[in-house]
Design goal:
Strand content: under 5%
Mean pLDDT: 73
Helix content: 25-40%
Largest sheet: none
Number of strands: 0
Radius of gyration: 40 Å
């Protein structure tokens, strides 16, 4: 009696093993996992911009800060010793009339006692990022696009405002403090 049971079990197992995959339930089939959407392999635009700012900051510290100062005010011992009068880049007026292309040319070619920043030291993109960095030193100076005129600053009125500020309402008189006298008796 035991032999037929073993024989039947072996046949059933053989049939299950030999069955095609379409006959098996879905969880038993061997499918490759769904392909994930590929993640971007390179840095994001925000990361690229941040890297550009960091490179510009380092480039400025190496090649510009010695004369122009760490904050861009142009007041350094080297500038004094060389008898240079450098623009204060922390003042928005100092760069207001300069286009990005003009600044690019000055940096690339040099000017007066300022040496040029050769292509071996900085790429064109690094110089453009440097210009953005320098413009950022100004308190309220937006970066002007190359070839475009800078936006006109709104004029502040030199006269007093037409209406004086509204006066505060008069203060209420102070409350009289309570006295410690007993009330008069009723007669």
């Amino acid at each position: 009696m035991f032999k037929p049971f073993l024989l039947l079990s072996a046949v059933v197992l053989f049939e299950i093993a030999a069955a095609p995959s379409w006959a098996l339930p879905p969880q038993a089939t061997h499918h490759k996992p769904a392909a994930k959407t590929p993640e971007p392999s390179g840095p994001t635009p925000a990361q690229i911009a941040a890297q550009g700012r960091e490179k510009a900051k380092k480039l400025y510290a190496i090649d510009c800060a010695l004369c122009h100062g760490d904050n861009g005010d142009g007041k350094t011992d080297v500038a004094k010793d060389m008898q240079l009068t450098l623009a204060d880049w922390t003042d928005s007026k100092s760069l207001a009339g300069k286009q990005d292309q003009e600044l690019f040319d000055i940096i690339r070619k040099g000017k007066d006692k300022m040496p040029p920043e050769g292509t071996g030291r900085a790429t064109d993109d690094e110089v453009k990022n440097l210009i953005v960095y320098i413009r950022g030193m100004a308190r309220q100076q937006p970066a002007a696009p190359a070839g475009a005129a800078p936006a006109a600053q709104p004029a502040t009125p030199a006269t007093a405002p037409a209406e004086p500020p509204a006066a505060a309402p008069p203060a209420a008189p102070p409350a009289t403090p309570p006295t410690n006298t007993p009330p008069a008796p009723n007669r």
